[in-house]
Amino acid sequence: MEIFLGFVLLSFNGYHIVIGTDDFYHDTFPNDFLWGVATSSYQIEGAWNEGGKSEHIWDRFSHDNNNWHNDTGDIACDSYHKYMEDIQLIRSLGASSTFVDFYRFSIAWTRIIPDPIAYRTGRNKSLNQPGVDYYNNVINELLKYNIKPLVTLYHWDLPQSLQEKIGGWNGSDIVDYYNDYADAAFKTFGDRVKHWITFNEPWVICWMGHGSAEYAPGIKEPSVTPYRCGHHIIKSHAKAYDTYKHRYKTTQKGIVGITMNSDTMHPKNESNQEHIDAAERGQQFMLGWFAHPIYKDGDYPKVMKDNIGDRLPKFTPQEIALNKGSFDFFGLNHYTTVLVEPAKKEFGFPGDLRLQLSRDPSWTGSGSYWLKVVPWGFRDMLNWIKKEYNNPKVIITENGITDNNGTTNDPHRIYYYRQYINQLLKAIKQDGCNVFGYTAWCLLDTFEWNRGFHEKFGLHSTDFSDPARPRTPKRSAAAYTEIVNQNGFPPVGTSTTASSSSSDVQNLIMLILLCVSFFCILNE
């Protein structure tokens, strides 16, 4: 290890990590800032065929052995039976008077409407009562402890019957089926749920599910299908927002938004205009694809129209009007940054972007090949949103880091949270970004989609080898609790902070522990 002015260089077996040490910002978040933690239905619930639930596309995709070691979410964390224990874990993320403010979770469509075709045609207009009871129990238990439910309506688990009968997100009828479901959820739970997210990460749904076939439903048709999927999701979101606005908002007084994921697209050569243009193009294709119609002018970004041409579906004037402004907040999932340079155009998505993506070899890694630790990219992302969409109200709906061993001694995760949350604090206090909340991903080690149980994001370890699925707090749970309790990183000299030198020593120790942990991961 060598220490230079402003950064630490650590080298081990040919790997090099450069981490800054001199720009940690001490301040607190606004008094009304919200802190939370998140999960999603298929990743934690289990009980895949219990309580009247029907099959969804991730059940089918997993049972067809498409995941790491053929893992499935059939049991996952068994939260369907252990939700009260999980809510106690949420309560533990804070002192007795300062629990986290909210818990973000998703409803499984197939648990409350097992047969959406019968529901729509009127053959069976009843909701599945065991599923309704389960979510009522979760919501009521949260509210008992003054923890707000932040509910995601769709976190990738489409009813398999809709995939087979109408083509899923590739079929235009899906808009009405989704609205039936959203309306039922608003009506059933909206007296207590005041914060709704229509979709989680539509980019992932449409590219990884319908372009690359890495995720359910496993369709590999990159030329047209991802764009058609995205078109129907945007229309579904706008219609559901309109339904809430005109049927429920006056009485329920809730708010509705959508969560989009985006890496920060950074030019590989900051002085090369072609690289700068490529980074902007990448940002528009990843985030603007869904944000531009909702948060800007109701239609797709010009760069998408120019590059995709007739393969990009067109909105009608009425649809443009419905899309535009269909939000009360902007949900953002952010994990990492990529370097961008121009490339020759290829047909279909992602070739339409004309980009070459890479990662700086000096960036610290994680348990996922794609997730590098680049804290400054988080601040850049928030400032891009501020500029592009007129500084909307933003809530960070996911942010976190993986490992592969599930250790409870996780200094790399502590470092990640401290650095990324510190960049968020700078974006709010120094740049004026309008961010009102932050969500740590994830409460538990969960079923991590096509990576099965191999990649772990949790603040709590889950022992998947034990049928009881015991949970154990990691060191990062205590670290996140400290940030929540202090509402950030209080300035030096306040009662919660010892001294500048003490803080610097703590940060340096954390850097060293981070690198030891990282190198252990590399050599497993």
From TrEMBL:
Could you identify this protein by its name? Uncharacterized protein
State the UniProt keywords alphabetically.
Glycoprotein, Glycosidase, Hydrolase, Signal
Signal peptide: which range, if any?
1-20
Assembly notes:
Homodimer.
Q: Could you state a single Gene Ontology molecular function term?
A: beta-glucosidase activity
Q: Which Pfam families match?
A: Glyco_hydro_1 (PF00232)
Top-level taxon: Eukaryota
InterPro entries the record matches: GH (IPR017853), GH_1_N_CS (IPR033132), Glyco_hydro_1 (IPR001360)
Q: Name one GO biological process term.
A: carbohydrate metabolic process
Query: What family is this protein classified in?
Result: Belongs to the glycosyl hydrolase 1 family.
